[in-house]
Amino acid sequence: MKHIVELLSIRSNFVFLIIFNSLFISDFYTVLLFNKKIKDNNDLKDLFEIISELESMLSFANLGIDNENYCIPEISDNISFNDLYHPLIENPISNSLDIKEGIILTGSNMSGKTTFLRTLGIAEILFKASSIVPATKFLSPKLDIYTSLRANDMLDEGISTFYAEILRMKKINEAIKKGPCLVLIDEIFKGTNLNERLEASFKIIEKLNNYNAYFIISTHDEKITEAKDIVNYHFNEYYKDDKIYFDYKIKEGKSETTNAMYLLKMADII
Q1: Which of 150, 140, 152 is closest to 181 using CA atoms?
Q2: Is 132 helix (H, G, I), strand (E, B) or coil?
Q3: What is d(CA 2, CA 5) in angstroms, rounded to the nearest whole number?
Q4: How far apart are CA 67 and CA 179, in angstroms?
Q5: First CA to last CA distance, the chain
Q6: CATH architecture type of domain 71-266
Q7: Which residues pair with 62 in a beta bridge?
Q8: Could you tell me which residues come within 8 angstroms of residue 172 by beta carbon, excluding any fewer than 6 positions away?
Q9: Is residue 218 classed as helix, strand or coil in its secondary structure?
Q10: Residues 6 or more apart in contact with residue 224 via CB below 8 angstroms
Q11: Where does residue 251 rank: exposed (0-12), middle (13-18), buried (19+ CB within 10 A)?
Q12: How does 159-177 read in b/e, with b if 16+ C-beta sit within 10 Å?
């Protein structure tokens, strides 16, 4: 290790660096020495693993420094949380919920559905990583997490938006057969027509229920709220002085409001 340190020290001298690299290819030799040292020394590998784990722990600790409210999550039979919020949003709105069965999440555009799904996904990942969680309470079983949040077309591979969604659903289908999962799906089957979207959505919901997966599916299609063995939650907007506002708070029941036409008018399109 002493030779490696000496060679690295030489690099700080520009003149020596040019001479040694030109005549002896010192950088190449340093890399070879370093790789050999790693192979021959298990203690060095252990040291790197310890350093990487410490860096992970420091990153988790930053959550407590950067965010005022957080908690130590606990293992439970169901998912339950109080005042959960997205740790990367300035002045975030928190939400509380108990999840015991599948949820269909409706709401108008920009009301907070996608952000809520991402927030829960982040919290579950932090929980699995033994980190603190941005909430005042967070309980959950140990779950694998599978999502379909940004399934878009991939032109270079000849894959349409709908087929990209199918590939995501295939992974989810394989995963729920192996063990407990949390499944988060945003705008289910948005890449196909209404009739097939409804039929396919009901099939997916039925399968998720058969394997007792925890799931939240967001949609704009009111018919999907009529699926069996689910509960409905929603986000909504309100209007004041002809302006639109959102409170970003999740509520029981299905959405009764829409805002697409208002947003088109606000953008001076219609």
Answers
A1: 140
A2: coil
A3: 5
A4: 33
A5: 71
A6: 3-Layer(aba) Sandwich (3.40)
A7: none
A8: 146, 148, 181, 183, 185
A9: strand
A10: 104, 188, 198, 201, 202, 205, 217
A11: middle
A12: beebbbbbebbeebbebbe
The residue whose two tokens read 């938006």 is 161
88, containing H or E segment: none
CA distances from 105 to 96, 187, 206, 230, 244 (A): 14, 9, 16, 10, 20
Please state whether beta strands 103-107 and 231-235 pair in parallel, antiparallel, or not at all (unpaired). Answer: parallel
Task: For residue 209, give Cα distances in angstroms to 25, 117, 171, 177.
Answer: 63, 19, 16, 12
Alpha helices in 177-244 (DSSP H): 194-210
Tokens 């021959």 found at: 40
Q: What is the pLDDT along the chain (270 residues), one digit of tens a residue?
A: 445 445 455 555 555 556 655 655 656 556 666 666 666 666 666 767 767 777 777 777 777 777 778 899 999 999 999 999 999 898 999 999 999 999 999 998 889 999 999 999 999 999 998 888 999 999 999 999 999 987 665 556 667 778 888 889 999 999 999 999 999 999 998 888 889 999 999 999 999 999 989 999 999 999 999 999 999 999 998 888 888 889 999 999 999 888 888 878 877 888
Domain boundaries, the chain: 2-64, 71-266
What is the value of pTM for the model shown?
A: 0.77
